[in-house]
Amino acid sequence: MAESVTSKNMALAKAINESLRRALDSDPKVLIMGEDVGKLGGVFRVTDGLQKDFGESRVIDTPLAESGIVGTAIGLALRGYRPVVEIQFDGFVFPAYDQIVTQLAKMHARSLGKVKLPVVVRIPYGGGIGAVEHHSESPEALFAHVAGLKIVSPSNASDAYWMMQQAIQSDDPVIFFEPKRRYWDKGEVNTEAIPGPLHKARVVREGTDLTLAAYGPMVKLCQEVAAAAAEEGRSLEVLDLRSVSPLDFDSIQASVEKTRRLVVVHEAPVFFGSGAEIAARITERCFYHLEAPVLRVGGYHAPYPPARLEEEYLPGLDRVLDAVDRALAY
Questions:
Q1: Active site amino acids
Q2: Do residues 205 and 155 lie in contact, with contact meaning Cβ atoms separated by under 8 Å?
Q3: pLDDT digits (tens, 9 = 90+) for 144-173
Q4: Which SMART domains match (predicted)?
C-alpha cells in the first residue's frame, strides 16, 4: 500500500524538525534560537537544514549562555515574536533556571494577564545514550512545581510533530522535553490530522488488571512490559500521560477505576518525582477503587551515574515487572 501524501514514516527527531519547519513557514514571528542550532543543525540534527532555508535571522546560533538565550527569548516574546529556544542538553538548563521560573513563568500573573509570553523551551532529556555527566538528567519535576509553565513530553513521532505545533501556538510558556533515547524511533505522522488536546493522556494499550502510567521515554518500555506480562496471562493497560503539567488526572482515574491498580514509571528519581504527585492524587480520588497502593518506578535518589552504570540506574523491564508483581500480589 502506497504511503499517503500526508502520512509519512519518520523518526521522532525528524518529526520535530518537520514541525519546526512548518511553524517557521507559516508564521514569520516564529524564531529558533540556541547553541549550534543553525549551521550544525543541533547536536542531534533536530534543526538540520532550517537555517539554510530560513536564514540566520530566523534560526539563530547563540553564544554558550543559557540564561542569555532564555532572557533574549522573553524580550522577543514581549515584542510579539514566538521564540523556540533549544537547551542543548538537559543538564545545561540550570544557568537559565532563574530566567525560566522567576521571569518566564511569572510575567503573565505579574501583569494581571496583560502580558503573554509564547516561548517554547526545547530540552532533550533523559538517559540511555551513553552520554557524559550533565547530559542525561530528567529535571521535569523541578519545572512542574512552578506555576505558570506547561510541561509536556512526547513518546512517539506523531505526538512530537503535533505537540510541537500546539506548543508554539500556545500563548503560555511551554517546556518541551524531548526523550533523546527515542529520537531515532520511527512512526507514522499524518501532517494533516486533527490533533487531540495538548494535555490529554492517551491509552496506548488496553488492559484490565493494572495500569502502567508513563510519559516520554518510558512509554515504549511500558508497552514492552505489557507485552511480556501478557505472555503470563496478565492484562496491563498502558497510559501515555504526554503532559506533566497540567496532568490529566481524569484519564488516570478512569483507567484506575477499571484496573484497580496503578504503577507510575519515569526516568527521574522517584524521590519527590512526578510519580509522587500522581500517587497522592489518585489515592485521594480512587481510595475505594484501589486494591493495592500506587507504586512508583524510577531512577534512584543519586547523581546520574557514568554511562557504564546507567543501565543499572534507569528503570528497565525487570524492575517494572517486579513492581507489577508486587501490585498484583495484594
A1: 135
A2: no
A3: 999 999 999 999 999 999 999 999 999 999
A4: Transket_pyr
